[in-house]
Design goal:
The chain is an all-alpha fold. It has one domain (about 5-70). Helices cover about 35% and strands about 0% of the residues.
């Protein structure tokens, strides 16, 4: 079987993207300053562009440098310092 035939190697679908976007919690934006609420209200043609970029990057085995960034905020448990 060709590796591209495995289900996990198939392109992302609009249904998968829409499900992921709609399940986003309302959190603070990251380095890109994009709020999850903004993503939830994008028109379908914008989501098509995002889906294309995601699939192109996945197919080319690329990860944009900015997608590798994260903001980590340690939160101590009650009673710990």
């Amino acid at each position: 079987m060709d590796e591209h035939e495995y289900e996990y190697n198939l392109p992302f679908t609009m249904h998968e993207l829409d499900t992921a976007v709609q399940s986003l919690k309302l959190t603070s934006p990251g380095h890109d300053l994009i709020h999850n609420n903004m993503l939830k209200h994008l028109p379908p043609d914008y989501l098509e562009h995002i889906l294309h970029i995601m699939n192109q990057n996945f197919n080319d085995s690329l990860l944009l440098p900015k997608w590798k960034l994260a903001i980590l905020l340690p939160i101590a448990k009650m009673g710990e310092t």
